[in-house]
Amino acid sequence: MKPILLEVSDLWVEVEGRLVLKGISLKIPVGETHVIFGRNGSGKTTLLMTLMGFPIYKVKQGKIYLKGEDITELPSYERARRGIGIMFQRPPTIRGVKLRDILKLCAKENGKKIEELARAFKFEPFLDREVNKGFSGGELKKSELLQLLVQDPDLVLLDEPESGVDVENLNLIGQMIKRLLQKDAPHRPRTKSGLIITHTGFILQHVAADLGYVVMDGEIYCTGNPIEIFEGIQRFGYEGCKECLKRKAMEGQPWQKEAF
Amino acid sequence: MAKRSILKEFKPAKEGRIPRDISELTKVEKERLKFLGLDESLQRVGEFVQVDAKPVLCRRKTEGLEILPITEALKKHDWLSDYYWKLLSPDKDEFTKATAEDLDDGYFIRALPGVKITYPVQTCLYIRTEKVAQKVHNIVIVEEDAELNLITSCTVHPHVQSAFHIGVSEFYVKKRGKLTFSMLHAWGEQTMVRPRTGVLVEEGGLYVSTYVSLYPVKDIQTSPICRLVGEGARSSFVSIIANHSGSKIDIGGEVWLEAENTSTEIISRTVVYGGENIARGKIVAKSPKVKGHLECQGLMLSDNGIMRAIPELDSHFYDVELTHEAAVGKIARDEVEYLMARGLSEDEATSLIVKGFLTVKVEGIPPSLQAQIDKVLETAKLGF
After folding, report:
1. What whole-number distance in Å separates Cα of residue A237 and Cα of residue A37?
2. Which of A14, A71, B245, B367 has the most crowded CB, counting CB atoms within 10 A?
3. pLDDT digits (tens, 9 = 90+) for A106-123
4. Distance between the two ends of chain A, CA-based, in angstroms?
5. Is residue B20 part of a domain?
6. Whole-prediction pTM value?
7. In this predicted complex, what is the ipTM?
8. Nearest CB to B357: which of A76, A95, A147?
């Protein structure tokens, strides 16, 4: 049995007075990547933001454990220091602060990697630009992924890493994520884990995900093989998930264990 | 009844504990001056240090440059009377008047025609003695086609509780000349500061002023007047200010565009921790075909301070381009959260955002001066 990196237990979360997550439980073992599917507004992003510890996401019930430690009440920077890293969907511009300045802060002791990684992913010209200012969709994603590569977290949270990226850059984004999750070196023992939200299934072409979830209305409806789940959604939409659930309930099956 | 002058509370700087030369300063004092740029390891082409009323160091390391105490320069050059009290009047206010009546000293710096001196000249006006008023008069002349980069660091002895500094400065930039003047100040919490500055820029000339004050100071009030009198003359004023509680900082800049194709920008970035800040700027178009832009940006970090941005544009002609923008606000929450998610505590995140806000790349100053400004920003405590 692989040790568990992240455990979420019966998590209920409120955002600005509205209950968004209603009893989410999941476990991510060390070295595994899990993928979340779900409609807009189903609570996927809320789950990731809550795991990172942003203050507007209020945990009403339940616990979050990282490497066995209860981090439910910790501020985001403490979580980052313990090994969680998140990619922002819409990262802000910070006037006068260069991407390099942030990378240096993310890097702590492995500052040497900044140049090497920037070169590897063709992002050197952006190092001395104001962070996120005037970056295109793809450049924002690359900037975020570069920050994560330098930060080197054990648990990577990615919210639709493919959105707003042109076709040309999709492959590069995929390569960066592969590197982040150590999927580019299949023979070495893997210590990095990921939790990734995807609409398009793009990530499945680059990263062999271990488990998929369907989140609907703040709950995990279904857990299973991510490729099978994605194919099911493509064919039947999320309505198909509801039908599937009804069928399984009638057959008395444990519905959270399989997909479709 | 006439208001009693605040200057009466201070004794003349001539009564200060003035050393015979710079080697007599203590280790602590030397460290302080070094931090502000009087550093052997930095490339400087000239140095001038005045302690209270007396210059204690005045040397140049290059040809084509003249550095003298102003009192000596006035004796040496008869023609200097054409420059002395010509951009400013002794009758301007009680501070100019006091300086005219009882001058301590000051510097005279001149770049000879056609000489481009890219490494900086460092000056330092230092108050060592408690409760003195230091009154200096400076004249800088950049002759035709010459270039001079001047950095001035003013500070007080770490143990001086209360002091008063008056600096009358007259700067002349001749045809196609270029002068950059960077002030990196670290006054004491109880220091009163009254710079009085006049600048004249001739045809094709450039004047770049950068004012950096990130440490607590009691009271600064200044509003240099810069006249662009020749065609194509340009000027730029940048002030980078941290206003701490207990400080009152009123910094302006007034530029008169008096010839065609002259242009200017006045930029101020202020972080208010407390106290009172006034950021003024005024551009006066006294000729057609001129351009001016004013930008006042303020960041409020608490409810314990006050910030006023007062931009002013005056035009006497229709064919001009004068613009201003002013914004006062708080630190954006999403920026703080972004940095916290990368592992920075709230205080570290705030400090980085403030530093970024105050980072203005000043066009036209040499990289070594920009590096010096960046270092001061790096060292100042800019969090809450």
Report:
1. 11
2. A71
3. 887 666 788 888 998 889
4. 26
5. no
6. 0.85
7. 0.92
8. A95
